[in-house]
Amino acid sequence: MTNCDSCVNYVYDEEAEYYTCEVNLDQDEMYRFLSGTNFDCPYYSADDEYAVVRHQK
User: Fold this and answer.
1) Would you kindly state where each structural domain of the chain is located, as residue ranges?
2) For 2-56, how does the pLDDT look when each residue is reduced to its tens digit (9 = 90+)?
3) What pLDDT was estimated at residue 50?
4) How many CA atoms lie within 13 A of 12 on its CB side?
5) Residue 43, SS3 per DSSP
6) pTM greater than 0.70 (yes/no)
């Protein structure tokens, strides 16, 4: 299972005052995510803000 806290798509919504996922999961993906049955998100992308800097070296 991926960790949403470290995903670049998991952002803080200041109006709602909570974190949300910016990816629109389809109905089957949302069911697997909410039921907690080993959901491996295909849209997971690590929030590594230093990746660009390492690439430039």
Assistant:
1) 4-56
2) 578 888 888 999 999 998 889 998 998 888 888 876 778 888 888 766 665 665 6
3) 67
4) 2
5) coil
6) no
Euclidean distance between CA atoms 57 and 6, whole angstroms? 24
Q: Which residue has tokens 């997971």?
A: 44
Q: Is 11 left (phi over 0), alpha (psi -120 to 50) or beta?
A: beta
d(CA 2, CA 45): 10
The whole-angstrom separation of Cα 41 and Cα 6 is 12
Rg over CA atoms, the chain:
14
Backbone dihedral angles phi then psi of residue 39, each to the nearest 5 degrees: -75, 120
CA dihedral angle for residue 28, residue 31, residue 35, residue 38, rounded to 10 degrees: 30
